[in-house]
Amino acid sequence: MSVAPGAVDPYDITVRSNGLRRRRIIEKVFGILSLLAALFACAILAVVLGTLVAKGFRELNLDFFTKARPLYGEKGGVADALVGSAIIVGMAALMAIPVAVLVAIYMAEYARPRVSRALRVVLDVLNGVPAIIVGVFVFGLLVVGNGQSAIFGAFSLAILMLPMVARSTQEILQVVPQSLRHASLALGVTKWRTTWNIILPSAIGGILTGVVISLARVAGETAPLLFTSSIAANAVSFDIHSALPTLPVTIYVNSESPDPGEQAAAWAAALVLIAFVLVMNVLAKMFAARKRRQLEGS
Amino acid sequence: MKRALALGAIAAVAAAAAAFAATTQTALAKPAGGSIVGTGATFPFPLISKWIPAVDNALGIKVTYSATGSGAGIAQITARTVDFGASDAPLSPDQLKACNGCVVIPWALAGMSIPYNVPGVGARLRLNGTVLANIYLGTITNWNSPAIKALNPKANLPDLKITPVYRSDGSGSTYAFTSYLAAVSRQWKSKVGVNTSVNFPAGTGARGSSGVAGVVKSTEGALTYVDAAYSITNKFQFATIQNRAGGFATPGIRGVTAALCDVPKKVTALPQLKIVDPPKKCGKVAYPISTFTYVVVPTKSGDKAQTLRQWVYWAVTGGQKFGPPLFFVPLPASVNAFNYREIKKIQS
Amino acid sequence: MTSTTYEPVAAPETDLRRRGLHLGDLLFKGIALLAALAATVLLGLIAWKIFQLAWPAIQHFGLSFIWTEAWDPVTQTFGALIFIYGTVVTSLIALAIATPLSIAIALFLTEIAPRRVAAPIATMVELLAAIPSVVLGLWGILVFGPWVRDHLEPWLQDVLGFLPMFSGTPSQAGILPAGLVLTIMIIPITSAICRELFMRVPKDLMNGALALGSTRWEAVRGVLLAYAAPGIVAAVLLGLGRAFGEAIAVNQTIGNRNVIPTSWFEPGDSLGSKVASEYVGATSVEQAASILYLAAILMVISLVTNVIAQFIVVRFERARAGV
């Protein structure tokens, strides 16, 4: 076919049209912008972690880990806050995990679909309750008239842990193949033994993943502890009936101090907290990998 | 897997048992002195920090104190979540009623310093009540304003915006400071008023004495009101304040002692202890923003009563010697006579 | 010669077994049911307790508390507007910046990056979520706030100073620093949900679009984003709910002033932050109840946002199940 000179033959596929070039440019821009966005997020992480390391690392001496928080005008460490955090988070886990797993079992094994959906909503709503509201709740319910205590602090953290662990456990239980349950029941094993001895162990990787992630989240929670365990002696204590000092509250209080020593302690404590959170996250990934291997293997 | 779970369960039970054993152990091993928990004012915290190890040495009493602000001190002791509260502000009649039988005992006394962060200004700045009130009202906004220049003709005042910093939490320091501002400025009295927590028309808030000190340290042009001990520890420059006698006073031992001249020889009620804005007869050295700070204890304190009596008695007698290095003035005898009567009211 | 004969052994039968019941089963189901009930009761108890503690203020001030712009302990007049403004504006700032960023990050991780690059970057974004809010607040007070005051706010004033919200004196604590810290907190949440959403878009839809000659961006815009749109809305709402509820980091960076500032550089206050500051130290019973009223408003706002997000998710899943 002959075409007028100067005009573009619409059937000539060797010619690139303007439209295509423009679309290719937009495509590249899109790629670059999203890369920048991802790099920006990584950059923020690097800046925050970098500041923590730069300002906190040199504080990590032996005194920091063995001495209790100092009184006004003295030098010390965060040993009592480390111990207090460990005790309170540990107690919170002991309170929350059994209940959460049972709720998940109920939702996955026993409840009718409608009830299960309703419970899912309850747990998701509970998950969305701000931590400060939980703190005020436990304060009004338990602390008034009784005084602060590590137990109340652990209870408030357990309330935060419960929906996280329950939902993640429920999701992993749903993924366990029905064939496993049917096989067990067909062999005459009772339902509860099936759940306890067969289903739960096969889901243990996923459950532990959820537990570890919620531990990491809850170890850094400040608001509930402000109301339940913030007035504590400046000495390492194991008395769970009184308030115990904790890392997040120590960081919070020190963050507004003008004293460079207290600020340095805050940075170092934040570094320790982040290190714990990082370790928990790595553990979670390990458990998730193990869960995947188990499910693929079975 | 089953064995692992079983071992885990045994470990958890063992840990719980150990924790229980530890708590009962600490309960049985309580020292003869007793242990008490208190919270409240940040103003006396430097002094209380010295008291805690000292009273442990002297009487075996283990005191736990957390500086959360006078407002929290009053609210927490009212809710009986602690054994004693500390406040720089005396309780209002409503608060006394809510506290349901509490004694309020002045146990320390110091000056409220006015530190500032104005680089390159040279010698200590002079301020007076009117200027302070106008700064916090937001009508004086710059360090080189004529009012400040008039008081400091030789100072090198830069063109720098003033950031007045105030306590965002319920604070006895705010109570003392606003008492002073209300005494010297009618506009403050009518527009803002006096309380542990007021609606500051201008500036930035921060929590606790250390919080406001922190903002001043990091913000050029900032000034705040805070216990003298915090200014000393943080090496702040603080202002001299003009008193009714015309002198410019500093919040040191002499300045605060001079402010006591109007306290009666026989103290029968707390309102007689108002030493803010002392009259002319107190002399040129009297520091106008001095304040007592109080401990609040329920008269019905159960099994903590004896420990609390011993603690407060020690604080107002033996503990006073720790005050002067931190710019706390030892309590005058007239005040302590009042205190001994009040301490006796702490019963089970 | 021995012959082994096997005789079937009958299982010991009990009445219960024949009826199909087993004590262990009943007990187990009962305990599990109890746990489920406990979780539900807990939620109701929290809502009830907050409202119970706030009731004296609700009775005294009524609904007008919500739009009253006052907080004066001296005259005992209290109102929530100042703090609602702070909460809403800081959260909206965070939303406005975080949403496009999160979608871009999620798109990068699912559509553009090769798997070996996507995995570590995804981990890093997750780690951003793991930073405790008090640590972000610490960084906000000591590092980020001063940087905002010395660099970002003057620049904004130069560029956008004609707008009232970017005028005024730069300050290290204020609406803007708090909003930016909230941005950092909600980016990982929103991007993680978006990422999961985008991964679930059916491959054939995307491949179909690409086969028809669209570029990757056109396929994303026309197919993926359109398909995932309700999910994105839900993700945004969940991030918003998180921003509403954040009290600690905001308390550390917002400046704590009882005022609705005209400029975003200046200090203000938010619902969660005010509750954290003042609940422990209220000067009177009325003030304590008013603070609880603020907490109740916060609870309602975040619950409503969450429930709407859940609702969208449920409808989204139901609709997609048919595809």
Q: How is this structure best summarized?
A:
With 298 residues, chain A is an all-alpha fold. In chain A, 74% of the residues lie in helices and 0% in strands. The longest helix of chain A has 39 residues.
What do you see in this structure?
The complex is a heterotrimer of chains A (about 300), B (about 350) and C (about 325). Chain A is mostly helical and about 300 residues long. Helix content of chain A is about 75%, strand content about 0%. Chain A has helices spanning about 20-55, 60-65, 80-110, 115-130, 130-145, 150-175, 180-185, 190-220, 225-230, 245-255, 260-295. In chain A, helix 3 (about 80-110) packs parallel to helix 6, helix 6 crosses helix 8 (about 190-220) and helix 7 (about 180-185) packs antiparallel against helix 8 (about 190-220). Chain A starts with 17 loop residues before the first helix and ends with a helix. Chain B is α/β, with parallel strands linked by helices. Helix content of chain B is about 40%, strand content about 20%. Chain B has helices at about 1-30, 45-60, 70-80, 95-100, 130-135, 145-150, 170-185, 185-190, 210-220, 230-235, 255-260, 305-315, 335-345; strands at about 35-40, 60-65, 85, 100-115, 115, 125, 165, 205, 220-225, 225, 235-240, 240, 250, 290-300. Chain C folds into two domains: about 1-60; about 65-320, MetI-like (MetI-like fold, Orthogonal Bundle), CATH 1.10.3720. Chain C is about 75% helix and about 0% strand. In chain C, helix 2 (about 25-60) packs across helix 11 (about 285-320). The radius of gyration of chain C is 27 Å and the shape is globular. The interface between A and C is large, with 86 and 87 residues.
Name the descriptors.
heterotrimer, A: 298 residues, mainly alpha, MetI-like fold, 2 domains, C: 323 residues, two-stranded antiparallel sheet, 11 helices, 2 strands
